[in-house]
Prior knowledge:
Blueprint: H1 6-19, H2 25-34, H3 36-59, H4 67-77, H5 81-85, E1 91-96, E2 100-105, H6 112-118, E3 147-154, E4 157-162, E5 178-179, E6 191-197, H7 203-211, E7 226-231, E8 239-248, E9 251-260, E10 264-279, E11 294-302, E12 313-317, E13 319-326, E14 329-331, H8 347-368, H9 373-376, H10 389-403, E15 408-409, E16 416-417, E17 422-424, E18 448-449, H11 459-465, E19 469-470, H12 473-485, H13 490-493, H14 499-511, H15 515-522, E20 527-528, E21 534-535, E22 542-543, E23 546-547, E24 550-551, E25 560-561, H16 570-578, H17 589-599, H18 604-616, E26 651-652, H19 662-666, E27 679-680, H20 683-691, H21 700-708, E28 710-711, H22 727-735, H23 740-746, H24 756-761, E29 763-765, E30 772-774, H25 783-792, H26 829-841, H27 847-857, H28 865-871, E31 877-879, E32 889-891, E33 896-897, E34 908-909, H29 920-926, H30 934-947, H31 953-972, H32 979-989, E35 992-994, E36 999-1001, E37 1006-1007, E38 1019-1020, H33 1029-1035, H34 1043-1053, H35 1059-1070, E39 1088-1091, E40 1097-1100, H36 1112-1118, E41 1124-1125, H37 1129-1134, H38 1136-1141, H39 1149-1152, ...
Amino acid sequence: MSSDSREEARVFIDKLRENNGGIAKADREFLAQTKPHILTTFDNIRRKLGASTRALADNLYAKDTRFVYELIQNAEDNKYSIANSSSELPWLTFRLYQDRIVIDSNEDGFSKANIMAICSIGESTKSSAQGYIGEKGIGFKSVFKVAHKVHVQSGPYSFAFEHQRDGNDNGLGMVTPMNEDYLDVPDGVRTRITLHLLASCDTAALRKEFLGLPDTLLLFLKKLKRLSIHITSGGFSETERTYSLSSSENRVSLHTSHKAPFSGLVSSTKDYWISRRHVTNMPSDRDRKNINEAEVILAFPLDGNDHPVIETQHAFAFLPMRKVGYKFLIQSDFITQASREDVFDTPWNNRLLEEVAETFLQSIDGFLLHPTLRHHWIRYIPTDSVPDDLWNRIQIKLHKAISSRSLFFSRDNGRLWRANELRILIPSNKDEDGEPLFPDLAYPGPTAYISDTYDRGIDIPILKSVGLSLLSMQDLLDRLAQDLNRLSPRMHSMSPSNQWHSRVADLLISFMQHSNHTEFLKKLPIVPLNNGKWVRPRNASIFFPTSGGIDIPDGLPNLNLVDTGALRSQSRRTLFSKLGVIECEPSRIFPLIEERHRSGGTTPAQSVSYIRFIYWHHTKLPSKNLAISLAPSFVLNKQWFNPFYSRNGWTYCPRSEDLHAMSRYIGFLMPDQLKDQIRFTYPAYYDELQKCERRNDKAGVDWFREYFQIKHTPQLCRRDNMQQISSEVEYIAKHQSQSLLGVLQANWHQYCSEWDAYFKSTELPILHSDKLQRLDTTYLPLPKLKSIVSRLGLEEGFGFLKELEDIAEHTASKWAFLDRFGVVMEENVSFWLELLKKAQTNPETKIEVVFEIYANLQKYVDPESRKIKNVFEGNLVLIPPVDSESHGSWNSLDSCVWDGPEWFTFKHRLGAITQYQDLYSLFRNTLRVSNAGCDDFLAYLQDIKDSETNITSSVEAKIRHLYEQLNEETKAAWILSPKEKIKSMFDENKLIYNPGSQSWCGPSSCIWAEDTIQLPGKFSLATTYKKQKSFFLSILDVTKPNLEMHILALMQKAVVPDKRSIMQEMLNICAFDVTPQAVEKLSDCKCLPVKLPSGEIQWLHRSGTFAIVDRRDYGQIFTGRIKVLDFSLEEVHSLRPLLFTLGLGGQYLSKAVREETTVEGGSIDEHLTEDLRRKSYAICRYAAHLGSKKVKNNALAVHRTLQNMDVYVSDGISKSVSVRQNGRSVTIPQESAYFHLDQQDDKLKLYIPQSKKHQQVCLSRQLPITLLKHFGVTSALSGQALGSIMTALNLFVVDEILEEDGIIEIEGIERPEDDRELEASDSETTRIPASTSQMRASPFRSTDPETSNIPVITSQAGSPGQSARVLTPSTPPPRTGISPDLFLSPGISTPGTSTFDGLPSSPERPHLYRELLDAVIRQAEGLSNLPMKGRTIEAPMAANWGFDTLSAVSSHIPGEKEFKIGAAGELFVYELLKGLTLPGFTLANWQSTISYRVAVHERYRDLERWLGSETADIVYEDQNSFLTELLIERGYLENAIWGGHSPRYYIEVKTTIGSLETPFYCSQLQYDRMERMQLNGAANEVYLIVRVFSLGDSGMGLKVYMDPATLRRDRGLIFKTDKYSVTPGYGR
């Protein structure tokens, strides 16, 4: 609503009037009076200007009342924000009076723009957007069809338009507003328009038009919710009609209330189903500028029962246009003609018409879910012709789409179908109840019965228009076929007497007039059989239930007999005959009887009838036996059986008079043992066959027994295997054995020799006993044998067969067959052995009887010795009593010996008993009773330990006797010594007696020492068992004191310490290979004498605070000032292994002391300055190699510093030495020092002493050490290697040293030219300081005690052209806690610093090393080939020669242990290769510099040291491709590449006493050589590594790494720490 005041509104209207050429009424009157000609001219102009407006308004609409729609349209397009904010429904009211029409609304009110729009032609304020109805801009002018004046009062505005339709008005009055007085309006009315009707207006017609407005007017308006019409005019009573809307989801209700003078208020409601569709991408149209979307709405009218209201409905363009022939309302933003009653044929409208059809189709989904519309929505389908071509397009599209979609319900109201898939049932297709003869087709059948819910008069005709049709003959047959495929077909479930069958039969007979239908019917199961089944007659043999007038037996398979009941209907009999049913011949029945038996389920009665039928027609039977089953007796058997199937066992008659009939042994209950083993036939067979007359001269029972092989008496053998005992005989043997012998005798002709063992073990009754006894242990009760047994008083339970107790001598031959079962039939060894066993079990047996039996047994010693031995495994040796009052005792042979020492009372000595002296042959020769031996003595010793709780002196004496006797046993053994057995028994059972503690212990708990040496947990044997020394040391391997014992002893001595004894014990410990684990017990042992500054001695453990003097000068400086270990320098050196293992390496003064140097004066030495500057590249490379961060971060800057350094000589170099102890520092100044370094900015100054002697010390040691520390190298000893560089004569020597040590190169740092390089000569060698011509210890090798990588470089005196030799250990370092400086500290003799020619001293345990080498050789000889590629090979023999490998290779010379390990490994590989018989392979191929160490072995005593240049441990030039072919065979080389080649092999051996996974060392030279020899095809040189592991152990073996350079790249070998530490990888 406008916010202008009324005055402002009047001014605006006046201005608008003037703009449109209008003059006020007063002005017109003035001109008419004063200037009439001007007024005339003005009116003429207005007339011409307004002619077009008037003409458009006159022709705008066909009806005068069309203005109502325009006003409703304007009201819909207005705004109702005020009403909405107040929850008011937007409304519009028309009040018709005789002379006017008043239109009220609660819209927001006119704005200036609205007023200007209605004061113009072709202009509108309505947005160019979807949803606005107006489009012409002149619709408002249509009110002048009925009015001459229009008064608008809205907000502050009150103005009017005047136009006389039939007068001389110029037409511009319709657009020229005139201010009017403001009138009062009711509350809530915000806009009122009053139409002053023309005098010529037909108010009656207006009333009729108003009352005829469609009630659907509001249906598609978005804003207006209520429309009211009030009619009060002359001659008519007052009438009021109101329309309003309500909606819920897709339903809209239109409410109409009508109030008439005489009928009162009448209300009604119409419901509509609303479907909406939003349309996008609309075609462009000039009337829809900037609009490309629209909405299509369909309203389907419903009655109160939600059924479709079938009436022709309007089409809407928001407001009703006209009815176009459809039964639903159509609304969209159509582009209408000027009359607004129809639409143009434009792309825009055509698209909307298409979308109308899509919206209809879209609505169907909702209809189908509605309980009533789901069947009746089809009534909205347009069936009548739509005459308008434009609107008919909807009908065409709908029919096409509906016909092709599954939208209709079948009879089961399940899934949806297309109309052309549904069928209409006719009466002939139904039963007497009106139901379909056959159920409908199941999904996904092609057709279905139409639902009965569809109205036959209304819906069915519509459905026919979209494809519905009648049920055809084929449709009916399809349903018959489907019904027959159901689980319970109607045809099969109907009673045979039901009329349904006759109706169907008649129908089918009529169908059979067509041959194709006949064939179809023959494929259907429509013939009932007597077994209840229904079959298909096509290609089937179906028979009537009789054959030649005789009933065919029931239950026969594959014999299709028509059900008798089905033949009661003549229609069905006719149908069956037409389908091919015939009678059956008897010859077809026999195979069917077989088949019936095969399928199972035959009843006994059926079986009897089959047998009777077979017997009656047995002359027609085939020659082959029928495969049928017989019924069991049902008393003895339950299962049917095939009488011809041998695995079913024998078949017996259920009743028989035979004395040995099987039925007599069974009785009335089949034993479990015989179930399924034998069969008894059904007695009814005999009963039925006995009733039959003879047929072809054969009685029925005789034919039955003969034909089915039925027996009377038990059969000895199985029916299916004549070599096996029958189950029935086994049963008799087990449960009725008292008759077994008679059964065997009666059927002996069936006996098989394979049954002997069974019958021998069968138990039978015996005389004088209630027990059963095995047949092979029984005796034939002959009178002679019975008399002997009786005389000895042993007849009770002796074993005479009870079944034959009445046998006489002359009838014995009848039972001769029992001999094969072991039945004793005469006096023999078995007879007397049985008597002995009976005597042993009879407590009343006299001793004389036993020895009489022994004497008789001795007669049979030669042929029957084995049988006698077996029996005597029991307790059958009688030991007579020592007096007449006691009884003798029965003992086993194991508790007896024939002879032994008198003190040996552990077993009975039979030779010493009088009664046995005449039985030597029986007991010594036959029963092999031995004299007391090793096992007896061990058992006696064990018995003493287990049984004696208080061992007396006499028992102790026996124990010593036993030890001595066992020792003698080891000496007396001729072939196999019992040493291992004795040792094992003593280890496991602890058989060493300790008299002191009265306890027993094993050898591992003993030491061979005097009683004065008592170690915890150890028994010192030497004093107690002095005479048995040989036994304990040689047999039991009792050890002498070892490292652990000495450590315990040290701990004991430390309780009351004595320096001398402590020192001695420590030296003893150092004689062993000491490990941190071994000395862990000494952690808290106060065994270290420490001298205090006061001179007092204090005993401390290793965690105490003290220093260790390892340099004499430091000892002199700090003694008396700090706490020091009170051992001399020599003693410290001797104790070095123990001290370092105790972790005291850091307390050595050489480690703990810190030196600070100063210098005064000095002069530059040009020669030394130039020499060291030239060597700056080497110094820089060393520093980088050793991990200097300064060089790593800026190598070029450090190099420049070194190139610019100055070397000064001075006598003013001094130092101060300091050490920290107990938290304080002790500093002592010294007057002289060897070296001082000073750097300011980039200038480096080096100061060395004036003295040449001191200069040599400085250049060799102090200068390189301090210089490297200055550049950040932490290891002080690393500088010793650099000392060789400092003293080298020329850069050639420098380069060789760098190469030998594997020093890395640095990019950008190059070696300078050196004109002074000369070949090495003796004279040059003599110029090298003495300290550098000796051993140079490289810090770049591991210093691990197992695999120390300290190379030894020695000069070859007398060989000027000979290169320096590198002795490189071959095994990698284990991880230990030993300091890396252990073998490099001063004062230790090394191979390079010894006074000899650089050779290491002889091994300290040459005999042990010799034994190790001997074992290595024997293990290598046990191998016959190389391992396959990727695998290892281990020596087959166990390397257990009784000592530790570490002891064999130990040495006090640092590094020597590793050389020994390496040499032993090389020997192992050499011996293996030698055993392969390689052509030309000799000791000359072993070119290792450490090989000579195996010369301690006798076989290699002539082996000389290799003096040549070492390229590999073993170098072999292959001959005739021998080794190459072997490597190809083992998978290392490819035959296609290497076949026929004979390269030179460089074999590097790497050895460890550890496992294969232990890392090994690879020098720079070795690394370079393997890289140079990497294989990329066949080559002349091949490099390979042989890894020897577990040296000296039982699992000693090796693995071959062919082409290690390639393995490194493939991760088969992992190189770490600058290529020196190598471990096996995961690659190939």
